[in-house]
Design goal:
Blueprint lengths: L1 H10 L7 H8 L3 H14 L17 H14 L3 H8 L3 H19 L9 H13 L25
Helix pairs in contact: 3-4, 4-6, 5-6
Length: 154
């Protein structure tokens, strides 16, 4: 039932929520999200939907990816995941560990690498266009005067 609700809310053609809602809740577009369940289950059998000993379907790849992303993006505790997705604490933690390991394995060469000069130039141009010149070496903004910086309020 939780899989059906998830699909009805976000992924079916006439879903309850629109793309803007999806982007706000998942911090990415639905087209980016849709790649994840496909990619992770090709590399890691843990994400493929199987049947449990009672013959019922286990959690779907969409459910597992959703739980992992919610735990990372919002710091959702496993208790709240249990309430909304019906997953035990140990299952949530297993999913998160498998997801992180799989994402690193899948995307490290493309996304989890040091930028080359072309990437650096592109990022510097973007930052400068937004009013933050030279921000590559201070992504935490520690070298930028910011009158509303939370550490300045203390």
């Amino acid at each position: 039932m939780t899989h059906a609700n998830l699909m009805n809310n976000y992924f079916d053609p006439n879903s309850v929520y629109i793309e803007e809602d999806f982007r706000r809740r998942f911090w990415m577009g639905s087209h980016v999200f849709e790649r994840l369940p496909c990619d992770v289950q090709q590399v890691n059998p843990y994400f493929r939907q199987k049947r449990n000993r009672a013959g019922r379907p286990s959690f779907s790849p969409h459910q597992k990816v959703t739980v992992a992303l919610r735990m990372m993006a919002y710091g959702s505790p496993t208790d709240s995941i249990d309430e909304t997705h019906g997953m035990s604490e140990s299952t949530c933690l297993d999913i998160l560990q498998e997801f992180c390991d799989t994402i690193v394995q899948l995307y490290k060469d493309e996304y989890l690498r040091e930028p080359n000069q072309e990437n650096l130039n592109r990022l510097l141009r973007k930052a400068e266009d937004r009013g933050f010149p030279g921000m590559i070496l201070s992504l935490d903004c520690m070298h930028w005067d910011w009158k509303n910086c939370p550490t300045e309020w203390q």
